[in-house]
Amino acid sequence: MTTTAELIELSERRSAHNYHPLPIVIHEGRGAWVTDVEGRRYLDCLSGYSSLNFGHGNTKIIEAAREQLGRLTLTSRAFFHDQFAAFAAGLGDLTGKDMILPMNTGAEAVETAIKVARKWGYEVKGVTPDRANIVVMEDNFHGRTTTIVSFSTDPDAHDGYGPYTPGFRIVKYGSVEAIREAVDADTVAVLVEPIQGEAGVLVPPDGYLRQVRELCTENDILMIADEIQSGLGRTGDTFACDHEGVVPDVYVLGKALGGGVVPVSAIAADESVLGVIKPGQHGSTFGGNPLACAVACAVIDILNTGEYQARARELGGVLHERLRGMVGRGVVAVRGRGLWAGVDIDPSLGTGRDISEALLRRGVLAKDTHGSTIRLAPPIVVSEEDLLWAVDQLADAVRELGG
Ligand SMILES: *Cc1c(COP(=O)(O)O)cnc(C)c1O
């Protein structure tokens, strides 16, 4: 029999070490729980970085995938297929936008938003060719392509991959003044995460998103919200921007849009913006394929009920109240919104990795983001009882490390 240790050893020997996984080999997942190859069960508090908002093996999503798998999986966009219209219209309605442009991964959707913003800048705003700039935030995470890492401030993500793509201005997150200072007549977009996930679930000051919206409107600049991790129910609203009643010009979506089954990403915008893209000017072989569309339609149906948003809001209240009670007892600070929390552990107790490993030993899957910050983002289907149990395990893990 192949053991956990053997599978880990082979994985590490035969694949690049671009991740540092926790020592667990997962075999099965159902709802908020996974089972490893040795039959041990763990509560999943990472949810594939919020790709599994609706749980492992969600019946509605899996049934849609299974039905589509047996019929038609790929056509390319050279032809129409019968799942595409419902997906485009459904996602357009969910976002309140005229149009969508489908891709696969989150990074591709961000790239799409950047390309559309530049093209819009030249063709609609009238920016001088090749002079467009986009304002981005410190500590951003938008993916791993060469252009995207060009404006990352994380040395691990950025260093060693030059020459870098120009045209980005990096400013402090949470400060509308910093954006105001950076914009000029050639600014075509502000690209912002409504809540910075990878940076440690950083919630900007109240009113920030509204002020960014106003600044963009006043200066004829596109507000691009990267809702790849914050969107689709996680924060207790469909989009994290909803919390401030803000509607960006461009939504960037991914992760949970694929229901934890297939990569599905897209941007959504009005025709005045997305209309700049003409045949042949952008695309993807797999983007908007029948399987992806069928799965995403099931996700959109789920979101249209509002049940998951409400549940994330309710459980989020419970989660944050419990976590706040831990501040001062090995926990330095807690942030987040809805069923999404960044927990700063006292760094003297150990690294985020130490805490993640202590949680693993207690049957909870979570991962550190930066330094000693643990991200908690269980599938929204998690029961209140299991959620509170996970927080108890965190308290216990902190105690074990001396907190
Ligand atoms: C995960 C993520 C991305 C990149 O998505 P991939 O599918 O990994 O390419 C981009 N932006 C945000 C905010 C993310 O969380």
UniProtKB/TrEMBL annotation:
Cofactor: pyridoxal 5'-phosphate
PROSITE patterns: AA_TRANSFER_CLASS_3
Pathway this chain belongs to: Amino-acid biosynthesis; L-proline biosynthesis; L-glutamate 5-semialdehyde from L-ornithine: step 1/1
Key words, A-Z: Amino-acid biosynthesis, Aminotransferase, Proline biosynthesis, Pyridoxal phosphate, Transferase
Transferase recorded as keyword: yes
KW Mitochondrion (keyword) present: no
Highest taxon of the lineage: Bacteria
InterPro entries: Aminotrans_3 (IPR005814), Aminotrans_3_PPA_site (IPR049704), Class-III_PLP-dep_AT (IPR050103), Orn_aminotrans (IPR010164), PyrdxlP-dep_Trfase (IPR015424), PyrdxlP-dep_Trfase_major (IPR015421), PyrdxlP-dep_Trfase_small (IPR015422)
Family designation: Belongs to the class-III pyridoxal-phosphate-dependent aminotransferase family.
Name of the protein this chain belongs to: ornithine aminotransferase
